[in-house]
Amino acid sequence: MRRAIAQTAERVYQRLDEKKQRLPRNIFLRLTELGEGTEETRRRTTLTELLPAGNQQETVYQLLKELADERLIVISETEAEVAHEALIREWPRLRDWLEEEYTSLHIHRKLTEAAHTWLLHDKDTGSLYRGIRLEQIQVWSVKNKEILNNLEIAFIEASLENLMLEEQAKQEAKKRELKQAETIEELKMVKGMVGSRTALAWMGMAGNAWRHSIIGDAANIRNIASLMLIQLKSDNMNPTIIDKLEENMLDVKRIAARIIDFPITPPLSQEEGVESIQIN
Hints:
This protein has eleven helices and five strands; from the N terminus they run H-H-E-E-E-H-H-E-E-H-H-H-H-H-H-H. The chain is mainly α.
């Protein structure tokens, strides 16, 4: 019986033209559970997994029906499996495929499982390939594109798109970090200029009205700067916040310019102290 099953499989294979002979190869390899130090066994899978992407799906489906008619596989409305494990052990051609494709099969099987996991998790990006695994599957898929099904292709494409989005996010984060650093330096520079000018005004301003005007302006700068620093140190900066920071920076510069432009007159008697601006 075992030999008869292998002979039937070989006969069906030989009936196919050269272009179609890769189809049963993909089917039987997918229907084989790879052994890890043990013998390979049969593997039940969905019909959709066995149907490659592209225009050969109807051809593959008809081949599945033919293999079922020859009692080489068993199919239901949604699933398929090898009819007898003897086929896996006794058909020389399938044994050759398993040996020849050992490394490739493991890469493919991991891809198939990862794609199913991704689907089960509602296509969550956390299930996608990254790093070395993504690089490996890119190279592998170029050589094996014709055996990939729709889900596997969608998984690879989603992984590549996610890689692009993550790279864009990294670039945006770098831009935000640079903008944060530049703005903090600008604030420190304004602090120094305004602090020095305020001190001079306390020592030599001609009238209290102007002196108190500077105190008010300095307080405004201090309040705006404090708010800006809180936002600058946040990890959740977005374009709206960045635009607001730019507006705030313009306000700081405008008020600072008003302070710096005040004229300084000889020192007033019994006037001491300075209201400093603290920007850390």
